[in-house]
């Protein structure tokens, strides 16, 4: 069994203790470190090499958004799930654009937190369709036409099949769901998603979803 290494980043020690207890309930997860702010998080990632970072957004010093950007610039960066109190938090969108793989509300049930970490570690979709729609609905309207033009241009480089996969990813579908709807194997879907990340120059599935959304705005 492969163990998923997790780093906890939150300025509240009680929150970190609660998350550690939740994640320790799964034999597949190992908490390899903690950090109280963004700057410490970058150093902790370099020291402990986690697979997934649970990152609070609001912290003194370097916040979670800046820290996420810094982590994305590292060689072999970890997956990042941002933690927030409000689902429609404007900072969540900034964190997603900075490279976070998704977000969790701090009051998310323990089993869902564990499953989210496992999904993200596997490169799967973490955001459910309903959460994806909520997140995209809160995209700002500023420069919408510019974003649409850029998105359409980037998506036009894809083959017809890749565009179908991108659209499915944009709807929040998992690899299994995409495989079933497009009549292909999950391995083929994973290969397509990997090519999408490279061709679209994005870091994760959520950013593919944002591009698809922008193209149809």
Question: Topology, please?
Answer:
Layout: E1 4-9, H1 13-23, E2 29-35, H2 38-48, E3 52-56, H3 64-72, E4 79-84, H4 90-98, E5 102-105, H5 110-121, H6 129-137, H7 144-155, H8 160-170, H9 175-182, H10 186-199, H11 205-215
Parallel strand pairs: 1-2, 1-3, 3-4, 4-5
Helix pairs in contact: 2-3, 3-4, 7-11, 8-10, 8-11, 9-10
How many domains?
A: 2
Helix count?
Answer: 11
Strand content: 5-15%
Instruction: Give the strand order of the largest sheet, numbering strands 1, 2, ... along the chain.
Output: 2-1-3-4-5
Helix percent reads 40-55%
| SSE string | EHEHEHEHEHHHHHHH
> What's the CATH H-level superfamily name of the largest domain?
Response regulator
CATH class of the largest domain: Alpha Beta
Structural class: alpha/beta
Distance between the termini: 43 Å
Which fold name is given in CATH as the topology of the largest domain? Rossmann fold
Q: Do you know the CATH architecture of the largest domain?
A: 3-Layer(aba) Sandwich
Whole-number mean pLDDT: 84
Number of E-state strands? 5
Poorly predicted runs of 5 or more residues: none
Instruction: Give me the Rg, rounded.
Output: 17 Å
Largest sheet: 5 strands, parallel
Oligomer: single chain
Any idea what the shape is? globular
